[in-house]
């Protein structure tokens, strides 16, 4: 089953904001045992969050923007299936939350579902660490590994005297009847080849077209594309030279304290970031194209728990917020990751500065408070300026009211390893290496 | 290659722990009661050249060495303005005992700051005064002299921590209390007097005002009013933690567990550390201590940890060239962005019979220097040492020094054809106190004294 992003964005009625926060807050602080909702009952749900994107204080000349409620869910299957399940199992929760929002259609289940689905903005780019792994598969494979480890713990001495094939056979026999793992999705297996093929084709068309192999019309188009690229790059540099980076110092604010209060308390964290897109169509469309490219890479290449060297993200998404609040557009980024904030940001800088800078160099904290100085979209500068970048990221961060993870005890690497263990039960290739997974 | 502008502006402990010439050492943890008196005392110390620096290398004749660092509350009490106070890094502002920091460091349960001997609550510390001396007689006299001076300087002693008995092995390495050679692997820092050539780690990782490991960027420096960043230059952050070692329990456990698994006690203990007692790294297919120490390994010959286990102390504390990147080169680059410079000493006497506890306290006065606490010390502690997911593992923290969360006290020993596992053992190291300090340059100390 495919994993999908659901991002429901709704306007909060100004006089209901506090009520909503008071309702969701206690759920978030006691995610497991609160009396309102047990997220673990929703078998399609991997991760979800609720958070408020604060409204703007009206400044002279611009109209005030309302506070928004964002509901992020990382699910198996379609949003429709999940929403129906949610409303069927806990209508009270959904009605209470969306009763605080503009456009709430009342408690008719069908209308409520279509209200949520119309306000679902999905994602402009979506990354899934393990495409095809449903929540239940993740659980099942966790159990399988556990059973094997317990068996080895009790029998290590006698097992270790045998050769890998015999050990494998003993484990398989011990487990008894275990269902075979599902095949990995087509794109996980062949996506990278497809991607390389696409790049080659594009390269061939460009080079061949330029030298006229495909006739004068294609040649004309290629030349046109090249001219457009040069014009684009010049325009980009012109924009970059006028951009101002954010140089406000690190300060401790209430918001940051709220974020830190819940951060690094367990093995996984959530990062929510809302940031303004630099004004003008140039930056807006640049960002859209970059996000489309990242989405493509995520679908075809980054399908094995590794997003360009980052091995700690379970699910991540970028969403361009609907509407333009007071003439400004905003970019929302949400990520469910393993380990500490410091490590996460470090991994971004160490391994993925290119993609990361390509996205955020088109954004700013506010006027004259842009991303660290960048040259050529992503090639130089940007997030490589470690401290400025971390400061920028911190300042764009929002606290969550509710954050749920279906498996806080499993890292991205654990899930991949568990799957490998499961698959290895049905194969006799390279058993010595398979035993190293245990 | 980077050159340090003025060695005489940098406090000496940055370059050396004075292990060779200074047999004695006391760490005074002080509170400032009357800043009006503290400032002239500070000014005097600097003007009379009592603070040791990088250009006055000790010799056989040298009697004392003194270094001095301040915590955030220390700077507050010296009345730094708000902007200057804000210019220190956040972890330092919050403090090691704060709710957020202590959760991150794994100081929970019996390690909780509320149970510390010092460093939290009423026993928070403003100032760290480190006194090194050549021998007992000189140390006693110096202690008396300085303790009297503290009184006149409006300072009261929260706690005095004395470095303890010293033992060296045949190779000349100092032993820590569990009996392993310590002080072997320290980063070779570019520009340090002891480093030949360019070194492996940029100067700016341990000394502010110089290029760091991010393509030579400058790490943020604390500032002081009109003096600006010159105040932070040649200074660095100092982390102090008092770590009690339960030596009897450690060796008792090793004996029992080794017997149960049919292996030798030393073999099992070495797997926990990642090095044999001599300091030699444990290599694949090795059953006994080779006795020869070579620190130039990078784990590429032991990628799966069948020699030095993936979760052992030294592999967590510095994973070197395996695990953090697709290539050895990339992995090393990442690992080297999280290094620390250790400068601590042991305290207490050695336990005579290692399996029989004598009820006395002993352990490590862990000190490390770094230009960015969050990215270096805290990162090592949180993301490597205490992380149960380190290197793809599942439910185990550092077997030697990991925090006391009972369900994380497991340890996998990679082996062929099948791993060993040790489960549900106790914590051997307990946090008894700690604080973050800033170790200013001599000129910055002078400014503080004159302010
Ligand atoms: C009582 C507590 C501790 C004991 C008994 C201990 C013991 C040891 C030993 C025996 C070594 C190997 C010798 C060497 O390379 O110098 C070592 C290395 C090391 N330890 Fe610890 N340690 C303790 C606490 C810590 C803490 C709290 C940290 C940092 C957060 C730390 C970081 C390191 C580092 C970075 C190395 C060098 C690793 C390398 O570069 O190979 N240690 N420790």
UniProtKB/TrEMBL annotation, chain A:
The chain crosses the membrane at residues 194-214, 220-238. The keyword Transmembrane helix applies. The keyword Transmembrane helix applies. Keywords: Membrane, Transmembrane, Transmembrane helix. This is Peroxidase. The lineage of its organism: Bacteria, Pseudomonadati, Pseudomonadota, Gammaproteobacteria, Methylococcales.
From TrEMBL, chain B:
Its cofactor is heme b. The keyword Metal-binding applies. Keywords: Iron, Metal-binding, Oxidoreductase, Peroxidase. PROSITE patterns: DYP_PEROXIDASE (PS51404). The keyword Oxidoreductase applies. One of its GO terms (cellular component) is cytosol. It comes from Methylomonas denitrificans. GO terms for molecular function: heme binding; metal ion binding; peroxidase activity. PANTHER family: BLR4509 PROTEIN, DEFERROCHELATASE/PEROXIDASE. Residues 335-385 form the Dyp-type peroxidase C-terminal domain. This is Dyp-type peroxidase C-terminal domain-containing protein. InterPro entries: Dimeric_a/b-barrel, Dyp_perox_C, Dyp_peroxidase.
């Amino acid at each position: 089953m495919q994993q999908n992003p659901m991002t429901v964005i709704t306007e909060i009625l100004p006089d209901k904001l506090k009520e909503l926060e008071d309702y969701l807050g206690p759920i978030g602080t006691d995610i497991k045992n609160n009396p309102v909702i047990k997220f673990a009952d929703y078998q399609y749900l991997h991760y979800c969050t609720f958070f408020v994107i604060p409204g703007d204080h009206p400044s002279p000349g611009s109209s005030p923007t309302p506070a928004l409620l964002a509901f992020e869910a990382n699910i198996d299957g379609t949003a429709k299936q999940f929403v129906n399940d949610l409303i069927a199992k806990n209508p009270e929760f959904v009605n209470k939350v969306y009763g605080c929002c503009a456009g709430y259609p009342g408690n008719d289940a069908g209308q409520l579902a279509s209200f949520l689905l119309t306000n679902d903005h999905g994602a402009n780019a979506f990354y899934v660490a393990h495409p095809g792994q449903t929540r239940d598969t993740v659980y099942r494979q966790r159990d399988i590994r556990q059973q094997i480890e317990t068996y080895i713990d009790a029998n290590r001495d006698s097992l270790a005297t045998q050769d890998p094939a015999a050990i494998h056979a003993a484990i398989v026999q011990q487990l008894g009847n275990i269902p075979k793992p599902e095949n990995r999705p087509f794109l996980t297996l062949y996506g990278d080849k497809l991607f390389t093929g696409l790049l080659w084709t594009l390269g061939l068309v460009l080079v061949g077209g330029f030298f006229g192999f495909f006739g004068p019309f294609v040649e004309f188009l290629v030349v046109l594309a090249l001219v457009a690229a040069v014009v684009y790059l010049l325009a980009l540099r012109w924009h970059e030279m006028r951009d101002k980076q954010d140089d406000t110092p690190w300060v401790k604010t209430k918001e940051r304290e709220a974020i830190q209060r819940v951060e690094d308390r367990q093995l996984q964290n959530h990062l929510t970031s809302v940031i303004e897109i630099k004004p003008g169509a140039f930056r807006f469309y640049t960002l859209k194209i970059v996000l489309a490219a990242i989405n493509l890479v995520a679908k075809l290449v980054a399908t094995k728990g590794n997003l360009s060297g980052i091995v700690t993200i379970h699910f991540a998404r970028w969403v361009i917020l609907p509407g333009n609040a007071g003439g400004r557009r905003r970019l929302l980024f949400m990520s469910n990751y393993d380990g500490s904030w410091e490590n996460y940001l470090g991994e971004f800088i160490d391994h993925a500065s290119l993609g990361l800078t390509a996205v955020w160099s088109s954004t700013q904290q506010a006027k004259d408070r842009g991303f660290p100085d960048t040259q050529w979209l992503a090639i130089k500068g940007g997030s490589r300026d470690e401290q400025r970048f971390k400061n920028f990221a911190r300042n764009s961060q929002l606290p969550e009211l509710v954050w749920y993870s279906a498996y806080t005890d499993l890292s991205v690497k654990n899930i991949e390893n568990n799957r490998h263990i499961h698959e290895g039960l049905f194969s006799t290739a390279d058993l010595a290496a398979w035993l190293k997974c245990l | 290659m980077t050159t340090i502008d003025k060695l005489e502006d940098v406090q000496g402990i940055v370059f050396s722990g004075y292990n060779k010439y200074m047999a004695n050492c006391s760490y005074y943890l002080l509170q400032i009661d009357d800043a009006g008196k503290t400032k002239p005392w500070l000014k005097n110390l600097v003007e009379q050249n009592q603070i040791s620096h990088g250009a006055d290398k000790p010799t056989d004749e040298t009697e004392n060495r003194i270094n001095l660092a301040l915590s955030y509350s220390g700077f507050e009490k010296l009345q730094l303005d708000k902007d200057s106070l804000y210019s220190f890094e956040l972890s330092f502002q919050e403090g090691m005992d704060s709710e957020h920091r202590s959760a991150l460091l794994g100081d929970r349960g019996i390690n909780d700051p509320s149970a510390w001997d010092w460093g939290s609550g009423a026993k928070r510390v403003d100032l760290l005064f480190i006194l090194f001396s050549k021998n007992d007689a000189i140390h006693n006299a110096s202690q008396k002299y300085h303790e009297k001076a503290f009184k006149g300087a409006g300072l009261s002693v929260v706690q005095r921590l004395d470095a303890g008995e010293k033992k060296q092995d045949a190779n000349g390495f100092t032993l820590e209390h569990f009996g392993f050679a310590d002080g072997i692997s320290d980063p070779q820092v570019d520009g340090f007097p002891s480093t030949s050539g360019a070194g492996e780690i940029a100067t700016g990782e341990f000394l502010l005002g110089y290029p760091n490991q991010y393509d030579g960027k400058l790490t943020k420096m604390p500032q002081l009013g009109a003096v600006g960043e010159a105040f932070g230059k040649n200074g660095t952050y100092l982390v102090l933690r008092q770590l009690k070692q339960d030596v009897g329990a450690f060796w008792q456990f090793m004996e029992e567990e080794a017997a149960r698994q049919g292996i030798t006690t030393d073999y099992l203990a070495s797997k926990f550390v990642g090095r044999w007692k001599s300091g030699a790294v444990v290599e694949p297919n090795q059953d006994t201590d080779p006795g020869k120490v070579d620190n130039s390994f990078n784990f590429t010959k032991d990628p799966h940890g069948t020699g030095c286990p993936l979760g052992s102390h030294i592999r967590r504390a510095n994973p070197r060239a395996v695990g953090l990147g697709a290539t050895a080169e990339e992995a090393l680059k990442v690992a080297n962005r999280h290094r620390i410079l250790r400068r601590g000493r042991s305290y207490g006497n050695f336990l005579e019979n290692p399996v029989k506890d004598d009820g006395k306290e002993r352990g490590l006065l862990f000190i490390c220097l770094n230009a960015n606490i969050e990215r270096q010390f805290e990162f090592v502690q949180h993301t490597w040492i205490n992380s149960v997911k380190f290197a793809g593992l599942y439910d185990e923290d550092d077997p030697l020094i990991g925090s006391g969360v009972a369900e994380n006290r497991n340890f996998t020993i990679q082996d062929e054809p099948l791993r060993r596992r040790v489960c549900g053992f106790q914590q051997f190291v307990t946090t008894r106190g700690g604080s973050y300090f800033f170790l200013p340059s001599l000129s910055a100390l002078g400014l503080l004294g004159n302010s």
